[in-house]
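COMPLEX REQUEST
Ligand: flavin-adenine dinucleotide
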Amino acid sequence: MSEIFETEVAILGAGPVGATLAAALSARGVPCAILDAAPLPPMALQGFDGRAYAIAAASRQLLDHAGIWERLPTTPCPITGIKVADGRIGEAPSPLDLDFEAAEVSDTPFGWMVEARALRVALNARLPELPHVQVFAPMTAEVARDAEGATLTMRDGRRIRARLVVGAEGRNSPSRTAAGIGTARHDYGQIGLVGAFAHERPHHNRALELFLPAGPLAQLPLSDLKEFGVSALPHASAYVLTESRGVGRRLLAMDEAGFARELRRRLGDWLGAIEPIGRRWSYPLSAMHAMRYTAERLALVGDAAHGMHPIAGQGLNIGFRDVAALAELLGEAHAAGQDVGAAALLRRYQAARRPDALLMIGATHALERLFGNDIGPVRLARRLGIAAVDRIPALKRAFARQAMGLPAFG
Ligand SMILES: Cc1cc2nc3c(=O)[nH]c(=O)nc-3n(C[C@H](O)[C@H](O)[C@H](O)COP(=O)(O)OP(=O)(O)OC[C@H]3O[C@@H](n4cnc5c(N)ncnc54)[C@H](O)[C@@H]3O)c2cc1C
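STATUS: Structure written out below.
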């Protein structure tokens, strides 16, 4: 008879969302097992790879409580101001811009820029030390769900018996497919180019969201380069650039000097000389939404449930909101001695999360449509709209709170 592990929750996928859920459940005393198909990389920080997440204030709270924030090996960079402007390649951003200051809304920053590898290192350092958590990686499993729970048969023959399975395997979630949960999809026909650059002048912790004819360009402040030591220029920012597939492919193929020129033509001169650092990454851009977030003894979280345009940098933050909601429901049920995989609990989870994610997918889609349009009158209306929001304090405050992951009005 092969070894069998009894637990309450089995999480498939130890990406940022799955691993944070394991930590949040552990903090509530809910026993769980977590599997990842890939090895969980060594603790040592590899070279700077250029990717970073914008972590909203509400997500930071979750990472704090789960004991992950304090383990970040590099300093997160606070974002204290955001400028939103309309632009054209080779021209300065439109003066009809929208300036958000975090201090006008709250005493915390809008969010923090956290290097993707630093989050990975912190999660991987935290997972093995969590009480109530068993970690299996690299490992995959066949899942059989029934009315009482689920049995996961791992590829080495060992088994896990749990009350609930959580699918956190990202966009192509096998547990979602196996449960027959369909998805709605939209292909933007665009590429997102992601990376980092060193620059001459300080960013003063300000982010820029510049709406260019082919799509948005976000510049997001990173901690000063002493942490990375890869350029003579002292400051650093991340970029997320949306382009058509053709232009995107040309930009990816360029040498460093050519790419730096193209980036600077789009950004303008406010950061002075720039030099790309780390790798240039690219992602085909699409939106995806699961028709249901639950099935018998199954809940979906993070990119397994939803994917959105990165225009507002909210994908992971929405995944962290799934984690917060599910961990709370499971923690309450476990403390009350109830079944953590009960249908009623799963209904409450779906009701709490699906409308919120749908709203964000819709909002990022609407932004992409409005700002990805270069027809003259639309451009003018957009510029006037940006200026109008800047002059209506309540509306501006609502936008700013939304960016922090807080309720828009509160
Ligand atoms: C261009 C771009 C820029 C972005 N910028 C931001 C940003 O600034 N801020 C933000 O909040 N979000 C951003 N996002 C979104 C963010 O990257 C995702 O939302 C986030 O990575 C989702 O995390 P996840 O843990 O759900 O999935 P993933 O990161 O995809 O992790 C899934 C995990 O599951 C594992 N796995 C896969 N299959 C199996 C299996 N069969 N069994 C076991 N394990 C499995 C994988 O190895 C992996 O570890 C951006 C996305 C794009 C495309």
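REMARKS: The pocket of flavin-adenine dinucleotide is lined by residues 12-18, 35-38, 53-54, 140, 168-170, 174, 192, 194, 240, 283, 302-303, 310, 313-317, 319 (CB under 6 Å). The first strand starts at residue 4 and ends at 6.
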